[in-house]
């Protein structure tokens, strides 16, 4: 149980286009979903936290107009990278948890974004 | 600000040898502590977690970790490493009452020699 999927696993796009990444909890309802960014050989950096039906809370330094997050249902959150540029190329990872407190986060396999 | 330090970027061990991966945190209070493993093409998998109580925590795949308050450490151990353990290992902390937000260390890449 507690499986999280991401789609697509890999995407290449041209500079200036927008890309949408989906994160789904397959066998549980995720009250909270998190979006991380991982640079090569580096750690995961939390970008934002989203609760179902609410606006996402972004970490300091993350442009909310650049990285649009929607958490419209208890099983789906989307991250849209708008007007993508080469510096947005990265590995994006989502995680989901059933609720607050000490609930475990379950991670998706990640999406590799390459912006040409 | 809280931080998590994993001093070893790379570690190589022989199959069957014991393993210890180090993790230190910097925070005024004791946070919740986690170890995750990341394999290529797969999501991060939780190995074990410490919230309170017994300071020696048993996890999956034969891993264990010991919380030492005096050293602000949460080192991961395994008595006998298998080739399939080769992966990236991340230590993470969560502030108590921090809304389930995790701060990750920079990771340790484990290589297992046959």
Task: Kindly list the characteristics that best describe this protein.
heterodimer, A: 116 residues, mainly beta, 7-stranded mixed β-sheet, globular, B: 114 residues, 4-stranded antiparallel β-sheet
Protein model, in words:
- The complex is a heterodimer of chains A (116) and B (114).
- With 116 residues, chain A is mainly β.
- Helix content of chain A is 0%, strand content 52%.
- In chain A, the strands form 2 sheets. In chain A, strands 2, 4, 5, 6, 9, 10 and 11 form a 7-stranded mixed β-sheet that branches.
- The radius of gyration of chain A is 13 Å and the shape is globular.
- The mean pLDDT of chain A is 91.
- Chain B is globular, with a radius of gyration of 14 Å.
- Chain B starts with a strand and ends with a strand.
- Helices cover 0% and strands 51% of the residues of chain B.
- Chain B has 114 residues and is mainly β.
- In chain B, the strands form 3 sheets. In chain B, strands 2, 5, 6, 10, 11 and 12 form a 6-stranded mixed β-sheet that branches. Chain B has a 4-stranded antiparallel β-sheet with strand order 3-9-8-7, with no helix packed on it. In chain B, strands 1-4 form a two-stranded antiparallel ribbon.
- Chains A and B meet through strand 5, strand 9 and strand 10 of A and strand 6 and strand 11 of B.
């Amino acid at each position: 149980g507690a499986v999280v999927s991401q789609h697509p696993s890999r995407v290449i796009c041209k500079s200036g286009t927008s890309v949408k990444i989906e994160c789904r909890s397959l066998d549980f309802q995720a009250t909270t979903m998190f979006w991380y960014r991982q640079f090569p050989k580096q750690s995961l950096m939390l970008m934002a936290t989203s609760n179902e039906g609410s606006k996402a809370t972004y970490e300091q330094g993350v442009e909310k107009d650049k990285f649009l997050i929607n958490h419209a249902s208890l099983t789906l959150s989307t991250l849209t990278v708008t007007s993508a540029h080469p510096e947005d190329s990265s590995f994006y990872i989502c995680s989901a948890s059933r609720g607050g407190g000490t609930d475990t986060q379950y991670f998706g396999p990640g999406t590799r974004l390459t912006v040409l | 600000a809280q931080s998590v330090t994993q001093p070893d970027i790379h570690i190589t061990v022989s199959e069957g040898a014991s393993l210890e991966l180090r993790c230190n945190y910097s925070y005024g209070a004791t946070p919740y502590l986690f170890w995750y493993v990341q394999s290529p093409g797969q999501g991060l998998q939780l190995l074990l977690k410490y919230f309170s109580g017994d300071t020696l925590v048993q996890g999956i795949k034969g891993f264990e970790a010991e919380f030492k308050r005096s050293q602000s450490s949460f080192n991961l151990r395994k008595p006998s490493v298998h080739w399939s353990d080769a992966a990236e290992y991340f230590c993470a902390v969560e502030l108590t009452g921090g809304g389930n937000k995790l701060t990750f260390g920079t990771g340790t890449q484990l290589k297992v020699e046959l």
